Amino acid sequence: QVQLVESGGGLVQPGGSLRLSCAASRRILSFDGMGWHRQAPGKERESVARITSVGITTYPDSVKGRFTVSRDNAKNTLYLQMNSLKPEDTAVYYCYASDSRNYWGQGTQVTVSS
In DSSP terms, which residues pair with 111 in a beta bridge? Predict the structure, then answer.
């Protein structure tokens, strides 16, 4: 059973930064892809970053240029660096990993507010 444990969420002012971490219980290079989704109250879950096993990254226009996904293979950890945060970035952020199945973390709350 794969476990993904997120950390790093919290309260930040607009324009601020946060870095989320996702520690995996398995070698992250064994996954076809990993990434981050978010879900705001009353909204559907949406993808905000994806990285493939060979390091190709993709982002939606809503976060492009502000969010960066990266990984530390030795630590089996995925990161999401979030800069220039906006109130509309407020959501629960979920880490995921995929091979023949999809695995999800428990989520971490990010609140952007003054």
Answer: 11
